[in-house]
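Researcher: I'd like a candidate sequence for this fold, 336 residues long. If you have to choose between options at a position, lean toward the conservative one.
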């Protein structure tokens, strides 16, 4: 499992911005946009406009980037990957515990130890080189969530070669933290979108926030359009898909979503998965995991996870089809 965060992010942002805001801006609605974590972001909040708030949000996102970035050699994750002995703060301990829980529930379809495999396939901080089964098997020998553990505020790796990568949950986590920040600043009605992952709170001028699920495009650079709109309040949603970030070789398409269990890009018939959860980091993690697991295994897991809802788009012998859990919000009209 993996989400690429390369600096050539404009196309990648379009790929991950599978959820788009619906409705026109109204007088009471404040809006600003920016760029952070290798992604674009969009913030909407109602109330008196605060001219300093974007600067404060940018500062918060800069701190989060310093936590997760694999392109910053001084980031916390980079230090862990380099083998530095560092003390983890309570926040990072909580994040790692949450990722390990998702890994366990998805039988390793989600796994933060996938960093070296991501690099091998050229979706990380290294250029793709010759890929062989021997190289894959070698890296797989030190890949696996069961090979790391926490001991108080220390991360213990069974093999020093293990490389962590949090990009499959970083945008979701950031959306959670920015929404918390806005609420603490006195803006309980807000919608935070970072890299396409969304956390909603309250209402938009007394009406529910509306979210649009983008339907897959044929080519990675085709125009994006939403095909299903739904209402979201005090919950999060995240989407993972495989048709915006990939490379082709000898007529075979290799997507950026790596299955850590086999060491190769996922090969299911899913095109995208949108997940709703209580927080965006959880939605983000499960969306990626479901892309790896495929539709039927994902449905089995969801049957026992009432706190999650999901919307799947898949290829059925050349025909685009959808499946949604019974608890996924019903379709709404575009306008508010």
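Model: Candidate sequence:
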């Amino acid at each position: 499992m993996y989400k690429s965060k390369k600096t050539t992010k404009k196309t990648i942002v379009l790929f991950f911005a599978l959820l788009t805001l619906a409705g026109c801006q109204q007088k009471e609605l404040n809006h600003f946009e920016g760029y952070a974590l290798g992604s674009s972001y969009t913030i909407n909040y109602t109330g008196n406009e605060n001219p300093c708030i974007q600067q404060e949000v940018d500062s918060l996102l800069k701190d989060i980037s310093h936590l997760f970035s694999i392109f910053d050699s001084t980031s916390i994750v980079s230090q862990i990957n380099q083998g530095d002995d560092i003390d983890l703060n309570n926040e990072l301990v909580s994040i790692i515990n949450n990722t390990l829980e998702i890994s366990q529930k998805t039988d390793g379809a989600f796994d933060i130890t996938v960093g070296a495999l991501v690099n091998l396939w050229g979706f990380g901080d290294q250029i793709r080189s010759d890929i062989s089964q021997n190289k894959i098997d070698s890296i797989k020998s030190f890949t696996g969530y069961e090979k790391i553990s926490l001991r108080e505020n220390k991360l213990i790796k069974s093999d020093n070669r293990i490389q962590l990568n949090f990009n499959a949950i970083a945008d979701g986590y950031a959306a959670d933290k920015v929404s918390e920040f806005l609420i603490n600043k006195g803006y309980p009605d807000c919608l935070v979108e970072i890299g396409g992952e969304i956390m909603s709170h309250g209402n938009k001028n007394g009406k529910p926030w509306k979210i649009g699920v983008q339907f897959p495009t044929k080519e990675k650079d085709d125009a994006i359009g939403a095909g299903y709109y739904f209402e979201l309040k005090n919950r999060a949603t995240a989407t993972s898909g495989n048709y915006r970030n990939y490379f082709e070789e000898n007529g075979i398409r290799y997507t950026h979503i790596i299955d850590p269990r086999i060491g190769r890009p996922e090969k299911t018939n899913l095109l995208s998965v949108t997940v709703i959860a209580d927080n965006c980091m959880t939605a983000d993690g499960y969306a990626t995991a479901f892309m790896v697991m495929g539709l039927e295994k994902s449905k089995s897991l969801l049957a026992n996870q009432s706190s999650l809802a999901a919307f799947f788009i898949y290829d059925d012998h050349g025909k685009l089809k959808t499946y949604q859990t019974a608890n996924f919000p019903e379709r709404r009209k575009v306008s508010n």
